[in-house]
Amino acid sequence: MRNLDAAQITDAVARLCIEANYYLADDIFHALKAGVVREESPLGKEILQQLVDNACIAKNEDLPLCQDTGMAVVFVELGQDVHITGGDLNEAINKGIARGYTEGYLRKSVLTDPLFSRKNTGDNTPGVIHISIVPGEKCKITVAPKGFGSENMSAVKMMPPSAGVEGLKKFVVDTVANAGSNPCPPVVVGVGVGGTFEMAALLAKKALLRPITERNPHPEYAKLETELLELINKTGVGPQGLGGRITALAVNVNYYPMHIAGLACAVNINCHATRHAEIEL
């Protein structure tokens, strides 16, 4: 059994909140640079270059990539042989979010009540926390700040099994096309297939954590990812919704077994930044 102090978790989450909001991941950065070359629309080329320049400024000057620094979504893979000491795990994570958003001068956007008072909590807590127990004695933490220009464009649909692959493709492509400029394209699209209503959504969210250079290891799902990307980029939405061939940088699909009577599908759209940072303690 390995002991892990809650204070270490707080420190790590605080750093990750800042890093995810300041520094664009290499896979996204290189995809944007390649997009400048591939994009046929002159305006689209200009927009993509501006996104590249923005990422460079944010990195060099330690500034947020975007004014919407998101709601902190935190994934924890906790080894079953790890014992958290000195505090509660969820509390330690939320302390880290509060510190990171305060020390990093990140916009605080979380409300205590979504419907009535809508009062800001003042420190961007609580985060949305997903904890998985895994073998071993390590703790992996991933922080994925989620802006709501893209989150608001996401969707879940419970389809009949007869909808099949073509029905799923139509749902995914229509969701992205109907989103238009709202999620700040070029987007990264996470797709979750299977499980139940809530599992499909979680699969889609987790799909956004996978590097866009990696395809699903299952050959049929890898092919589906490629096909969906091609279809989405044929919609003509383009960078920032102003037309062009690069509407999406990637489509990542995760799947899970499900009941014979259904076909659950979730689409979680992310802006071009697809912010996340991780550490293993």
Structure in a nutshell:
This protein has 281 residues and is an alpha/beta fold. The protein has two domains: 2-20 and 65-146, no CATH class; 149-274, no CATH class.
Can you give a write-up of this model?
- The protein is an alpha/beta fold and 281 residues long.
- The protein folds into 2 domains: 2-20 and 65-146, no CATH class; 149-274, no CATH class.
- Helix content is 40%, strand content 25%.
- The chain has 8 helices and 10 strands.
- The protein has a 4-stranded mixed beta sheet with strand order 4-2-5-10. Strands 6-9-7-8 form a 4-stranded mixed beta sheet. The protein has a two-stranded parallel ribbon with strand order 1-3.
- The two termini are 14 Å apart.
- The relative contact order is 0.20.
- The mean pLDDT is 97.
Helix percentage range: 25-40%
Gyration radius, rounded: 19 Å
Largest β sheet strand count, sense and barrel closure: 4 strands, mixed
Strand content bin: 15-25%
Features:
alpha/beta, 2 domains, 8 helices, 281 residues, four-stranded mixed beta sheet, globular
Helix and strand layout, with pairings?
Layout: E1 2-5, H1 6-22, H2 26-38, H3 42-61, E2 71-79, E3 82-85, H4 89-103, E4 128-134, E5 139-146, H5 148-151, E6 155-159, H6 164-179, E7 187-195, H7 197-207, H8 219-233, E8 248-258, E9 263-270, E10 277-280
Parallel strand pairs: 1-3, 2-4, 7-8
Antiparallel strand pairs: 2-5, 5-10, 6-9, 7-9
